[in-house]
Design brief:
mainly alpha; Growth Hormone, Chain: A; 7 helices
């Protein structure tokens, strides 16, 4: 491996994901045969759940080109690519002094981001937390006063069978 330029700059999540895939993170479900370390697999597992998994070099280059008109700092561009905000509310924390720099263009930037950068993976369906009655379960006991002839059994007494 030949290093062209050490520490040339920050990488997008897409570039890190692409690098890990090129080293075999994608092709080794057993995680035993590739040259990817366990910590790199953890990074890979995280990145496949982010917008980076659906991005392409073309979409990133197109975004960088279109974002020049907004005069964003390199760090702001990098954060937008990695986070892929889809509304002005999500963009505001990323842009330093946004009120002075682009108050009237923030919605326009949000629309451009949604248009150019693909969305992240859809979240998995929420598991159903409500318990549904199971036919194999025993029926619930009726412990109302009516069912016990007005007598309440606190567990110390034995109930008489009639």
């Amino acid at each position: 491996m030949k290093i062209l330029k050490a520490n040339a700059g920050s990488l997008t999540n897409f570039e890190v994901l692409d690098f890990l895939q090129s080293r075999g993170a994608l092709n080794d479900p057993t995680r035993l045969m590739s040259s990817v370390t366990p910590s790199e697999f953890k990074v890979y597992d995280y990145l496949v759940k982010t917008p980076a998994c659906n991005q392409t070099r073309e979409s990133i280059c197109e975004f960088i080109e279109k974002s020049k008109e907004y005069q964003l700092a390199k760090a702001e561009v990098l954060n937008i690519i990695n986070i892929r905000p889809s509304s002005a509310v999500e963009i505001v924390p990323i842009i330093e002094e946004w009120e002075n720099r682009m108050e009237d263009k923030i919605e326009e930037l949000a629309e451009m981001i949604v248009e150019v950068l693909p969305p992240g993976p859809s979240p998995p369906d929420e598991p159903n937390t409500e318990e549904e009655p199971n036919a194999d379960d025993e029926p619930a006991m009726d412990v109302s006063a009516e069912a016990t002839d007005g007598k309440v059994n606190n567990g110390d007494e034995q109930m008489e069978e009639s």
